[in-house]
Amino acid sequence: MKHNFGAGPGILPHEVLKQAAEAVVDLNGIGLSLLEISHRSAEFEAVLDEAVKLVKELLEVPEGYSVLFLQGGASTQFAMVPQNLLPSTGKAAYLDSGVWASKALKEAKYFGEVDVIATSKESNYTYIPKDYTIPTDAAYFHITSNNTIYGTQLHEFPKSPIPMVADMSSDIFSRKFNVADFGLIYAGAQKNMGPAGTTLVIVKDEILGKVDRKIPSMYNYQTQIEGGSMYNTPPVFAIYVSMLTLRWLKSKGGVEAIAQENKAKSKALYTEIDRNPLFKPVCAVEDRSDMNVCFVMENPEHEKPFLKLCDERGIVGVKGHRSVGGFRASIYNALPITSVHALIDVMQEFQEKNK
Amino acid sequence: MKHNFGAGPGILPHEVLKQAAEAVVDLNGIGLSLLEISHRSAEFEAVLDEAVKLVKELLEVPEGYSVLFLQGGASTQFAMVPQNLLPSTGKAAYLDSGVWASKALKEAKYFGEVDVIATSKESNYTYIPKDYTIPTDAAYFHITSNNTIYGTQLHEFPKSPIPMVADMSSDIFSRKFNVADFGLIYAGAQKNMGPAGTTLVIVKDEILGKVDRKIPSMYNYQTQIEGGSMYNTPPVFAIYVSMLTLRWLKSKGGVEAIAQENKAKSKALYTEIDRNPLFKPVCAVEDRSDMNVCFVMENPEHEKPFLKLCDERGIVGVKGHRSVGGFRASIYNALPITSVHALIDVMQEFQEKNK
């Protein structure tokens, strides 16, 4: 077994993979593969129903919100959000906390005016901008809850006077938050929820239907709500594996329990980075992510041999994103704390060897 | 084992399912699941490259065409096609041969004028309209190559003076055709190519870039081409299983060989429908589909007991679409001729019992 610190598609629970593999051959003993049954079959309808129910239960989604499983990743949401929420003559407010945030706001410009109310671009996004005022005349306020590339995270969500929209692709289901504070939440599945191929959208029904623009069916949240995520054939396998992963999360004690584990994992790793003189952190301490732990080496010449040692010890996926360099250990829900300890051991072993 | 005549998501080859299940646990013995590796890893890049190569090889795609694996199903293509090809002041020509064709043209109306040059709606789409002229001043001409619901198929493609666009969701890879006759071809994977969750698009590069409209990145074929189907995280699993299915098709002798098998399967089944006095066909003989064989019963009271007998004999997915009624046997590439014989046996057994 490898220790998988990949940034995404990321690690999934071993028992989920085992069950998913079984369903690919024969789903629940019905004599057919999950891949070759109708999405209108009783079997798949039960899967989708359970997936939606688990999302509602685990995140305590209040009444008045719809839960959707769509396709196209968060990048499609970058367009669908303004297409559905931003009037052509209106404006939307964006917090620019990283490359994904800046990609999101770029897509919004196809539909209306964009007000970037704060950015940390000048520091290569090493912190979350904090001094800003959310304009009350904007249609919505968009944030990215966790910045995978830089390892920063919004630990407290702002109070927004207008509907708040969040890209939670890399930290959904990793910690508690209040869904009622948001107008819309979206997340690509492939970090904390399941495999690549489906995108979770949680939308407050009452914020829809306020733009004049005519929206093609597949891009329209209203059509997708009316179709119950089955306006057309949904990504059956990705939804099934997401359902299994959410079941696993529930069996672990839910979001509150996993949040404690996640805190323990990130604390252990940051403690080692701060302690070990060969390594140094890259982000503002108060904004350190509990999902993606970024660090570099004091001596850049140590990076290659350290990566080699990681590889020898079965630690994979720790190479940093090219725009930050160094290392990034993604410690999503499914990564056991034993893997974090394995990485810490290698950091200490490397220190010993390089005294 | 069941005989799976489901209309889609449909049957996949047994060995493909077995290999897919193995990869869900451990891909090629690398110690990681296919579901938890980076889409930028060497392993997945090899998968995507091979999938694209197999499409080009099996369909003999000429130079000047791009092959894409996207998300969102054919229904998303209903919008992307006009968004990318139909100028706001222009018009597009559509052949209305069924519900899917009519859904496609409905989406085109969001982007420009639509000219429905022929329809068989008045007869509940029991034939393919044939007497029409393709307007030379339209941006493109859209057809649906096979109509899953009604069991009709275009056996000869028209010669089009303007770029021809085809929804081939339910018969791609089932028979030979000349890609060079088309400007754009799209197909949801879940009938003849793989599981639900990815959509094949084959587009002639030179027809792009001719509309003034600004197109958000994910909806823009140009962005997807430049990103090599990886502008964002692709649907890794669906592409992998499609690749395996295309490998299987190649090992069977390719499109020409499977087309012969498909003809043998459909011929056997239509022969029995025509012969057996209890059953009757629903479509024009010359337009009968080799993929979806639709039939009803002379005595509607026989339908329930026949369905029950099918179920007892392990024959599943034969219930007709609600808009046609009766029965629909989908006999996609992966369905062995032995399954067709099993269905014919049940039809004859039912005839015996109801003499």
UniProtKB/TrEMBL annotation, chains A, B:
Q: How is the cofactor bound?
A: Binds 1 pyridoxal phosphate per subunit.
Which compartment or compartments is the protein found in?
Answer: Cytoplasm
Q: Which residues bind L-glutamate?
A: R40
Name the coenzymes or cofactors required: pyridoxal 5'-phosphate
UniProt keywords (A-Z) are: Amino-acid biosynthesis, Aminotransferase, Cytoplasm, Pyridoxal phosphate, Pyridoxine biosynthesis, Serine biosynthesis, Transferase
Q: Does the keyword Magnesium apply?
A: no
Residues holding pyridoxal 5'-phosphate:
A74, S75, W100, T148, D167, Q190, N232, T233
- Which superkingdom is the protein from? Bacteria
Q: Quote the pathway field.
A: Amino-acid biosynthesis; L-serine biosynthesis; L-serine from 3-phospho-D-glycerate: step 2/3; Cofactor biosynthesis; pyridoxine 5'-phosphate biosynthesis; pyridoxine 5'-phosphate from D-erythrose 4-phosphate: step 3/5
Q: Name one Pfam family in it.
A: Aminotran_5
Q: What is its EC number?
A: 2.6.1.52
For this protein, what is any one GO molecular function term?
A: O-phospho-L-serine:2-oxoglutarate aminotransferase activity
- The Aminotransferase class V domain sits at 4-341
- What is the uppermost EC class here? transferase
Quaternary structure and partners? Homodimer.
Q: Which family does it belong to?
A: Belongs to the class-V pyridoxal-phosphate-dependent aminotransferase family. SerC subfamily.
Instruction: State what protein this is by name.
Output: Phosphoserine aminotransferase
